Amino acid sequence: MTVDAQTLAQQGLAPERPLAERTWKEVRNFVRDYPLGTVGAVITIILLAMAVAPQLFTTHDPDIQVLRDRYAGISWSHWFGQDQLGRDQYSRIIYGARTSIIIGFGVITVTSSMGLTMGIVSGYFGGWFDTVWQRIVDVAIALPGLPFTILLVTALTQIRMELRLVLGVSVLISFSTSRIIRSQVLSLKEQPYVEAAQAVGASNARVMFRHILPNVIPLILISASTLVGIAILLEAGLSFLGYGVQPPTASWGRALSDAREFMTRAPHLAVFPGLAIFVAVYGFNMVGDAIRDKVDPRLRGTN
Questions:
Q1: Which domains does the chain have, with CATH numbers?
Q2: Can you give the pLDDT at residue 279?
């Protein structure tokens, strides 16, 4: 027993466990308490691995065309069959995960930044600024989502398509996120510790980012994984309509769009991209529910 451990024992305190042991205990507790969240976490980890290193999951080039094997069904060499150009559909779906993950996590980053800034500033200062800003938020939320996103995506022609999709989806979601953050800030700024900080002369910036921001972060953690699922669905919808990433870049939504003409001849072309979207959104939603219950047990079992 070390000196520190002996001192703690004399004081009736247990020595702090090693980080690895504490981490493993937290993982075991999470698996035990949130089985569906664990399934979602496994799905999320696999999707992240596919996005980072898709070549580890497949041996076929997703862009190689074998026209003589167009519409070929499931086989040992092509697990999900081949598409209308003879490309391996399994490889296309694996590489399509990169598009979905890039856009999904890009949306989280931009939406969280915009939503936090707008929500904290609006809720903290209040007054005429809050009134004017909330009317702008009302207008933005009232806009039809998909047409508005398509308008932004088609207007931003000078930047890459992936970045256009991130910005288009983020602008749409960030307004509603800012309203959620604002409602929390309105409650937090009435707390005694915030009033005490203001009484001793703390600046507005210090109060907002030192005392209010840390208490708002859990809201972002709770909504982040759900936002990834929403972003994946929106990206798939835009690609399905022809406003997403363009060929030959692999995309689940684009694969569904291409499969429309061949539903009777090769239904597998629509089944597997649809399943990929379903599994991805399900996984992120389950992780989001588990994080919500872990961060705030009062919300357990609520929608």
A1: 32-299 (1.10.3720.10)
A2: 92
Classify residue 261 by burial, with Cβ atoms within 10 Å: 0-12, 13-18, 19+.
exposed
Q: Which residues contact 55 (CB under 8 A, 6 or more apart)?
A: none
The gap from C-alpha 122 to its chain's centroid, in whole angstroms, comes to: 24
CA–CA distance, 49 with 283 (Å, rounded to integer): 14
pLDDT above 60 for 58 = yes
Q: Is the pTM above the cut of 0.85? A: no
What's at 148, amino acid-wise?
F
